[in-house]
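Ticket reopened. Same input as before:
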Amino acid sequence: MLEAFITGLLQVFDQTTFLLMVIGIFLGFIVGILPGIGSPGAVALMLPFIFEMDPVQAFAFLLGMYAVTGTTGDITSILFGVPGEVVSTATIIDGHPMAKKGEAGRALGAALMSSLVGAIVGAFSLALAIPIVTPLVLSFKSPEFFSLAILGICFLAALSGDNKLKGVLAGGLGLVLSTVGLDYQENIERYTFGLVNLWEGVGLIAAAVGLFAVPEIVELWVKGSAIAETKVGKLGGVWQGVKDTFVHIGITVRCSMIGTFFGLVPGVSAALSQWVSYAHAVQSTRDKSGFGKGDVRGVLGPGAANNSGIGAAMIPTVAFGVPGSATTAILLGAFIIQGLQPGPKMLTEHLALTFSFVWLIVISNIITVALCLLFLNHLAKITQVRGSLLIPSLFMLIFLAGFANTGSYFAMTTTLVFGVMGVIMVNHGWPRPPLVLGLVLGSLVERNLFISYEIYGLWFLTRPIVMVTFGVALVVIFLPGLQDWMAKRAKLQEDPGA
Amino acid sequence: MRNRTDIVIGVLLVTLLSWAVWEAQQWPARTRFFPLAIGYPVLAMSVMHLAYSLWLGLRPLTFERGPAAPDPVADAGPPLAPALVRRRTLEISFWAVAFAVGLYLLGFKVGGLVMPTIFLRFQAHETWLTSLLYSLGVYVFFKIGLEEALSFPLPAGQIAYGLGLYSFDSYLMDPVLNLFR
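Engineering reply: fixed in the latest deploy. New output:
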């Protein structure tokens, strides 16, 4: 096994392979920066180019691209509040307020370094975990997937300040909106108003961009200033952000583990792991007052989680041919193009190739982070450009994002509608993340709920993992309120006049 | 009445979700299973929210609600006059729709050249030079970065389609680019 591990490393440093990996990184960097052109789309676009390559070269090219999209997606999330990738949405919550405070450099440094730590944790878990996680993954059935998705939404709802009802309601509304489109079983239109453009459902990217980016643009214009509200002389803080990763190494590593866990469970969205990691960062911190206003720990958690999931998502793909994410589903196509069969042979005959995946993910991330760190100060300066100059580009990007995702101009209407919703939600204290997560997870929840009910009836709710997951969800929702109530009661008992 | 908007949102949600649940009941069992499974609880929650908003609205002003959800946009800067905020919000909303319509009619490349120029010159009051250079940058990004380098398909826009033409810029740019191909 050690020999295969080293052979995998040497294969990556083959001249042609390394060059193809760098080209992949470059393309992934562009794709990551551009909102809406996600890694699944980019990998799919590049599949025709790998026919002439050998397997290591092909995967160097594709994994190099895949590995950096999440990292660079964080850059637009922090600088503009526009998620470069769906998996970068959670980074906005604290990253963008940091940029507004003039700490863009620090936020970017933290996001990049935590992404690197996450990528390393995820990649090596790919190497170590295969024999350990097999029984765990195989024990997960539809009821467990359903309960995990509900847990994710509850985590987010719990972050909705004092008004958790709004958080849960927003998550529920996201689930309801996810039912728009053709029913996947009977092909019957649901809430489409006869519009063919809605058959595929509400465009996720268009909706996410509308909810998050449009309110930013409105705010930029209303304020009439730059993204950064505080002017700092030289945009420093990048190394402070890097240091923050190691000061809060516990959060970074734990969130990497969360990302790894969610990455290796097939079909569970990487976006979910980012949100759960964010929730973990908040809940594991005593002083929560800074979260949502620019706390670096709110950047470290999601940053670490989104990249750790990349290596982990390869585990079920390589070992069982079960893709762990949308991009790995497309990578399965690359296996077929290369004449490889995911499964036991990947762990025996092609073990060196499997280990080369580990090295490719690690090395791609190191190169990306090194390059980004070199140019971060220049990137961060964009936040000090006055808003009126940024707005046309942002308009072009948000409309391109929806269009790129669906190939239809109708996505622009979706962006505008969700933009209006986003502005209303911001102005009236409605949390937007649960709504997006509901939309992301809707089809997964529906499929797994239906299968669970068909197979087990309502008894699926009594399965041990489901009960534990729902128990955790209830604790997450009700514990903070219960703690507040008990604290008030204790205070009243101490001072009845209060 | 305080939180009037919350009540309006609550009424809208209850109406929308009631319609969603009613509509779902007409579908076959498999199709309606999930919309109803999720629709009824969410409708119940929206009724609870509406009731809570009404209760808050009718209470005397002795109780202040806690902070809202953490939201990156929620933090306010220096206070601006409400009339100014309203005017600027309407302005930018108009431009959002104008960009969408412009891109739909002209396509991303030509629209990317025209719309930023108009916005920067006539709304942001930038100089012609800045506006044109900026828009040229946007065009180059779409034409060279997306269409040529990434082979990303960018449609020509409805006006060109209606006239049966290629994208307007093709007649000017393609002969130039052909020299380098």
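Chain B touches chain A through 70 residues (CB under 8 Å). The helical segments of chain B are 4-24, 29-58, 82-123, 128-149, 158-163, 170-178. Please confirm and we'll close it.
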